[in-house]
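Why should sequence recovery work at all? Because a backbone constrains its sequence more than one might expect. Tight turns favour small or flexible residues, buried strands favour hydrophobic ones, and helices have their own preferences. The token representation captures these environments compactly. In the example below, the structure is given first.
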């Protein structure tokens, strides 16, 4: 039976940890850098002031998609995003699309949960 891709990743991670532990004892270390790859919808979440982000989280918690809809307008007011190469109008419509996805899938609870996590991401980005 062939080992799966996940097993290979786990083995590679274990080898890196073991190498780091050996390196730590001999005063040479291994630096491991992890970088999150964001999709276009996730990267379109604006960096807002903290109070605005908390309000959007509150709105998303009780009315799925409403906080995301409000955050789309902060992009038009100059809030920066992780999509610097895209036009402001495109980022605005990406946020509107995210809000519509949250609203339309809230019926089956997926959109509501997504909406809450989206609001939490807004607060996390605001605190950076």
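From this structural description, the recovered sequence reads:
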């Amino acid at each position: 039976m062939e080992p799966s891709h996940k097993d290979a990743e786990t083995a590679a991670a274990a080898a890196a940890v073991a190498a780091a532990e050996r390196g730590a004892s001999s005063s040479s270390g291994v630096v491991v850098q992890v970088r999150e790859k964001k999709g276009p919808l996730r990267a379109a979440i604006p960096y807002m002031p903290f109070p605005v982000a908390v309000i959007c989280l509150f709105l998303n918690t009780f009315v799925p998609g409403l906080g995301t809809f409000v955050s789309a307008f902060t992009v038009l007011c100059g809030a920066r995003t992780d999509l610097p190469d895209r036009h402001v109008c495109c980022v605005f419509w990406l946020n509107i699309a995210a809000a519509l996805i949250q609203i339309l899938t809230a019926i089956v609870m997926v959109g509501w949960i997504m909406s809450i996590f989206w609001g939490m991401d807004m607060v996390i980005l605001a605190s950076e």
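A few observations help interpret the result. The mean pLDDT is 82.
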